[in-house]
Design goal:
The chain is α/β, with parallel strands linked by helices. It has helices spanning 13-21, 49-53, 91-97, 127-158, 163-170, 178-187, 200-214, 229-239, 249-260, 283-299, 304-315, 350-357, 359-363; strands at residues 2-6, 38-47, 62-64, 67-76, 103-109, 217-222, 244-246, 264-265, 274-275, 318-324, 342-345, 365-370, 375-377, 388-393. Helix 6 crosses helix 7 and helix 9 crosses helix 10.
Length: 396
């Protein structure tokens, strides 16, 4: 699974990415700072069962004060400008990078001080960037489907081939699956048995709807700290039906850096922080932290962690499950407590978990145990968020 960061140049994408991953990413105040896609590991956060069970966990990641950090891959692609599908800016490179993403976070300068080209301005309507970004994504999908549609429809009709399977085989690079195609067709009145009869508008509607399903998006309304941004945020919420979260990536990055330096105690997504070493804080740093605290007071967080969580848990509908070897001590073979936290689609079964852990374990899977109840469950048992599961295999 991969989370893609998109948006016009100079909107704070690289700052958002660095705040999430603490990777060594170039950040500058000019368009196209990012040329090649930056990749790194970010995290979603969820309450760890360790507190509920009264145990101290040994995660293959992080668990801070009972908050489990589950790794996700993140991708910060080059800034997008209008007519990118025609090659403007870094157009084709941007769109090709996006093939890998399962969900998109649109980092938007909600202050209205950056235009669609990434240039400084005043009074710009951020909604325009929502419009042009979605338009570019639609053009990208349409072009992909139009190039193949004639041959595709001929194969389906003349050779009596399955519609979904043909789309999957030709467009696997877009990370679509059979359910995505069925869901798209379910929303549109189109004849799946005779795609050659689809006109240009039909193909456009199909590709746009499929894009919305396969590349769902949440908006990170960045730079909310700038005067006038809050008014533009409220105006934007009236115009779109996409989730919009007020953000200040610079504040999140400042807090994570201060936390790394042991100057403050802060857990990503927290509504406050605590200064640990008063003497180590310079006057300039103190003023900065006072400003950050005002943001936290106003919005409850910097918005960065909330945005990533919303993208993964709400848009992709994922859950976290904890596989263990010993159902009594919740440990692996080495005695590590609750070592792994696995992200799965909501509705996944114990068998799905077995294959996610390792293909060989999936092949040998015969059942599972719910570690909380101690009961044995079958392969079709649907998992719930926070489940702790022992996988049973034929070799045991």
């Amino acid at each position: 699974m991969k989370v893609g960061l998109v948006g016009a140049p100079n909107t704070g994408k690289s700052t958002f990415m660095k705040a999430c991953t603490m990777a060594d990413i170039e950040i500058n105040n000019y368009p196209f700072t990012t040329i090649d896609a930056n990749q790194g590991i970010g995290y979603v956060t969820v309450e760890c069962p360790c507190r509920e069970l009264g145990v101290s966990c040994d995660p293959n990641g992080k668990c801070i004060d009972g908050m489990r950090f589950v790794p996700v891959k993140m991708l910060d692609v080059a800034g997008l400008v209008p007519d990118a599908h025609e090659g403007r800016g870094l157009g084709n490179q941007f769109l090709d990078d996006l093939r890998e993403a399962d969900v998109l976070i649109h980092v938007l300068d909600i202050s209205g001080r950056t235009d669609s080209e990434g240039e400084p301005t005043e009074g710009y309507d951020p909604y325009k960037n929502i419009e042009f970004l979605e338009r570019e994504l639609d053009f990208w999908y349409r072009d992909i489907f139009r190039r193949e549609w004639s041959n595709l429809s001929s194969e389906i009709e003349m050779e009596n081939k399955d519609f979904e399977q043909q789309l999957l085989s030709r467009f696997s690079g877009l990370k679509i699956d059979r359910d995505d195609i069925k869901k798209t067709l379910g929303r549109l009145d189109l004849d799946r048995d005779h795609p050659s009869k689809w006109n240009k508008e039909d193909i456009n509607n199909f590709s746009t709807e499929l894009r919305k399903i396969t590349k769902p998006m949440v908006v990170a309304a960045n730079k909310i700290d700038i005067p006038g941004a809050e008014e533009k945020l409220e105006d934007l919420k009236k115009k779109i039906d996409i989730d919009v979260i007020p953000c200040c990536a610079e504040a999140e990055l400042a807090l994570r850096k201060a936390s790394e330096q042991k100057k403050v105690s802060y857990v990503a997504g927290d509504e406050d922080f605590k200064i640990l070493d008063e003497e180590s804080i310079s006057e300039r740093e103190r003023k900065g932290l006072d400003f950050v605290r005002k943001i936290l007071d106003n919005y409850g967080s910097t918005g960065v962690q909330e945005t990533v969580n919303r993208a993964v848990f709400d848009l992709l509908d994922m859950i976290v499950v904890y596989p263990v070897e010993n159902e009594n001590s919740y440990t692996d073979k080495k005695g590590n407590v609750l070592p792994d936290a696995v992200l799965l689609e909501n509705g996944s079964t114990t068998e799905d978990l077995a294959y996610e852990v390792h293909s060989d374990i999936g092949e040998d899977f015969i059942g599972a145990k719910d570690c909380r109840s101690g009961r044995r469950v079958g392969s079709d048992r649907v998992l719930e968020n926070g489940d702790i599961v022992k996988i049973l295999t034929s070799g045991q």
